[in-house]
Amino acid sequence: MEELDNITRAFANTGTSSVDAVHKSAGNSRPTVTLPLPPGVGAVMLARLRRLALPILLVAAWQIVSKLVLDDTTRALLPAPTVVAVAAWELVSSGELFRHLADSLRREFIAFSWSLVAIPVGVAMGWWKSVNEQLDSLVEILRPIPPLAWIPLSILWFGIGDIQNQFIIFLGIFFPILLNTITGVKGVDLNLVRAARCLGAGEGDVLRRVVLLAALPQIVTGIRIGLGVGWMALVAAELVGASSGLGFLINDARTLLRTDIVIVGMITIGLVGLVLDLLIREISHRLLPWSRSLHR
Q1: Entry pTM
Q2: 182-237: per-residue pLDDT in tens?
Q3: 239 near 248, Cβ under 8 Å?
Q4: For residues 71-80, average pLDDT
Q5: Which of 29, 39, 45, 237 sits CB 3.0–4.6 Å from 168 for a disulfide?
Q6: Secondary structure string (H, E, C) spanning the chain
Q7: Is position 159 within any domain?
Q8: Is residue 217 located within the same domain as residue 280?
Q9: What is the domain extent for residue 133?
């Protein structure tokens, strides 16, 4: 009882480790096991700064070259990061950057909704040999044609406007989703299909509950690739066939020799592409936690 009271008093009086107090009061000479503490805020910030070391060095080198090496004429073609930051603030404060960004994103997502037709087409081509025989030659003829090569013809068909831009984006997104869906369906484990049929599943149930679910990781990969290609095709299409959007902003700034605005538009394109990819990855992690290929 006396030793138990000593242990209780040790717990009440000490401001350090409770485990250490127990061992000291009980006269236990065995060393205590201390668990590693989680990294502090400073360690986390330092780890993040290490990842940004190379971009920071590149921006510093860019600033030095623009300010100290280039003359006034060539400096207009490569303005310093500080000048670009001022131009970015002007575009943000006026709302012009957000207006062009909203128009580009709207075209991207409308075209993306069209391109989702590639999923049922890909499932049909991957599952039924007769469908694949009919469509494979057509797909392999159209797929190598770059979306940018369609711009002159799309302007003749749809004129200059949103539909023309969306058509170019659609071509950029459609084929990556289609090919990845076909690959995913053909790669489904046949043992899963046989097991489902042995349990009485019909053809529709097998396609919905076995084939489509097994092919989802590959389909998500196709969506990631397609969104990236479509985003690049969008900007190229807006350079020649739009009255708004980030591509239009870059081209309009080029005619005015506003290289700082051109660089702001390019950086915005890159950042938005990164955010779109991170968003798709986060959604896939939540919807497909069982897929090892999407968690690497």
Answers
A1: 0.75
A2: 999 988 888 878 888 888 777 777 888 888 888 888 899 999 999 999 998 888 88
A3: yes
A4: 82
A5: 237
A6: CHHHHHHHHHHHHCCCCHHHHHHHHCCCCCCCCCCCCCCCHHHHHHHHHHHCHHHHHHHHHHHHHHHHHCCHHHHCCCCCHHHHHHHHHHHHHHCHHHHHHHHHHHHHHHHHHHHCCHHHHHHHHHHCHHHHHHHHHHHHHHCCCCHHHHHHHHHHHHCCCHHHHHHHHHHHHHHHHHHHHHHHHHCCCHHHHHHHHHCCCCHHHHHHHHHHHHHHHHHHHHHHHHHHHHHHHHHHHHHHHCCCCHHHHHHHHHHCCCHHHHHHHHHHHHHHHHHHHHHHHHHHHHHCCCCCCCCC
A7: yes
A8: yes
A9: 81-287
Q: How many domains are contained in the chain?
A: 3
CATH of the domain at 222: 1.10.3720.10
